[in-house]
Amino acid sequence: MAAKIHIVVRHNGAGWQVLTIGRPTDATDVARPYSSREQALSDALFSARMLDALGEDVEVLLEGSDGVKPVTEETSRVWLRH
C-alpha cells in the first residue's frame, strides 16, 4: 500500500507555497509562490481531489503559527475556480 501523500500549504515569508510530502521529487522542483492563501488552498484542494480520484490517499494541511492542521473543502470555505 502506498504512503499517504500530504499537500502542505505554508507561507515562506515572501508568499504562499504548496508542497507535497510523501512523493519523490526532483531536487530542482521549486513550488510556485502564490500571492494569497486562498489561491494556494484552492490549488491544493483541487490537486487532492484529482489524486483521490486516482486512488491515492491524500491529505491537505495548512501550516500556520498555531501548527499544522488538516484542511477540507468544507472547513476552508474556499470557492474553488476549478
Describe the structure in brief.
The protein is α+β, with helices and mostly antiparallel strands and 82 residues long. The protein is built from two helices and four strands.
Write the layout of secondary structure elements.
Elements: E1 5-11, E2 16-21, H1 37-53, E3 58-64, E4 67-71, H2 73-76
Parallel strand pairs: 1-3
Antiparallel strand pairs: 1-2, 3-4
Summarize this structure as a short list of keywords or feature phrases:
single chain, 82 residues, alpha+beta, 4-stranded mixed beta sheet, 2 helices, 4 strands
Descriptive overview:
The N and C termini lie far apart (29 Å). The chain has helices at residues 37-53, 73-76, and strands at 5-11, 16-21, 58-64, 67-71. It has a 4-stranded mixed sheet. β1 (5-11) and β2 (16-21) form a beta hairpin. The chain has 82 residues and is α+β, with helices and mostly antiparallel strands.
